[in-house]
């Protein structure tokens, strides 16, 4: 018995009452044998001196001579013979709860948390199954689980990728808690490209969800040898970009600004370096990303297309560890530093580029004075206060600076901070409190030969608070609910003369402010073992705030200077305009068999934030614009339906999913629009409708010497801008393809392991050429030559395809080494395909000539040295 003291005071009480008080908070029961005046203390169980009511089946006579057998109303007593059980066990038998003769049930609730025994990190997506029964549960992102287990003796089978398979014996006397301390398995994570729970794709109710582990990018050959989970994401169905060198991702026909990218709960506005060639995430500090492109969790909102929920590793709480790499243009280093043993740790990551030497080595005089560099750093502190409280804090900063011409220096940066407190209120309830701040900005320093030097800048800042709860009502109902609030502050841009001799005039655009909030409630309801329903509702609210000025235009007329009706001035914190409405989150899963399911989902969203850009790439002068009096929020809905099948004990996965998306108030620009430093930008943009639809196919092999996946997407992304006024109409008001409409998209990722030290990988991509607008003729007017263009996006550039190859060579696997290393040799664009990124036109000697720009037109070899200790 535990060495615990209980101090109580009794006077003239029955012995049974005294024992009830003493043993109330323990797992012990007692039995009084009055004839011998002896008292027995029993661990968990009950001593019976008579069989409980209903122990034997009651027989009743029915009609005629038939007998009706009635089932017992109480479970039988639990029998476990300690003497005949194996003496040597890795884990002792876990006795859960305390038997209560007044509350005997056929099954009880077992809750707990799965934790890595070495790192003390939670183990998500762990399958816990009751042996010899079709009953299982999967741990959440914090490692928590709750499962209904039959009364009495049971075996729990615990399995997950990277975790040693384990069986735990439990005896269920009542509801109780069991934390699982798990050891890492012998599987090498680099054998799996996209890592997930073995049956998660079939068993969850989510449609269009993907998980990528940072280790998955280790064996995929990418440009200049850089690991990049966002590039890996582009190899999955439904996710693409406008082309090489294009920043941002297009998910299921949505614009790049319709993705919510989170790094440890804080928004990351620009997750890529150098126009999308590199990710702005340190691969050695990044744990992985959960992508939601269909059924979006109820806590997320504010974007129409997707959520990229990126998580940073928790540090090692036992010993110092690190990982790094040295490549042709970048160097990475990450350290995991224990602060308080077994309780807290610090993760420090730094990464930088030294690409200037490449530009200077090119045989091009105009690039001799060019430079291009970037760096990013991350700091994460993780502290486990006790079994019920855990705190995480993350700080991140990145900066890009480049100058391709000798007179302009471009720079842009991201800064964010997040603080999260996870708390376990009870065995059935947990909470998470999150505070985050994000800032994104860019600047241009122009130093020309004339007196036109200037400095230009732009920034957006947001602060968010979120408080969410998760409660297990019973074995069938789980509630997720909470509140979030966000404050925006936008500097729309300014330009100032640089130096006393500059003739540039100062332009300052008024700042913008806004509040965005939401209430959300979701219920995961398990109707049966086969049918799972996830219902949610979210109410989104937005208020544009002063101080500021807004133009009101005449009703029924196009917005321009001549139709301004009045100019309204708003004081500080005065409400300019409010928007909002309910958002649905509905998804369902039906299991035909344990490895075959059908899923469906529907959701709608509001987006109060927009990007203003007339380029297909996210350039440094793309700006974010808040909804206001004249620019309404974007709205959209999406419906999905899919089939999911696993084979050969989840070694193979197949999925086929279709979707349809409708959008309203999407933004585009008028021909020749001037968007930056425009006080009345609403006169240059249009708002119309959009639609996107498609079918996604994925075939994946998760294990073995040969593994990888094949993805194919057929999709369309179309927009329409119609008006009775020609200046607000595009392509005569008909639907036309978006800049990133690529009907056919194929990706093949293959990895082959020759030995434990040598492996080879290949990456093949094919995409339909993206739309482009061509000149179709010339005409002369007032003694000047002009070009007549086709309808917008009427033509397409040539199709895109690329093959990449890589060879991974690991060092020897001796246990006692200062550091373990491996070398990656890769060739990007092996075939030397001159894939055009864009086509543009110039006039020479009265003739219009077509030219194309390409990012990588030749094979790009690289070698990267990686080490880990």
UniProtKB/TrEMBL annotation:
InterPro entries: Beta-barrel_TonB_sf, CarboxyPept-like_regulatory, Plug_dom, Plug_dom_sf, TonB-dep_rcpt-like. It is a multi-pass membrane protein. Gene3D superfamilies: Carboxypeptidase-like, regulatory domain, TonB-dependent receptor, beta-barrel domain, TonB-dependent receptor, plug domain. GO terms for cellular component: cell outer membrane. Residues 225-303 form the TonB-dependent receptor plug domain. Belongs to the TonB-dependent receptor family. This is TonB-dependent receptor. The lineage of its organism: Bacteria, Pseudomonadati, Bacteroidota, Flavobacteriia, Flavobacteriales.
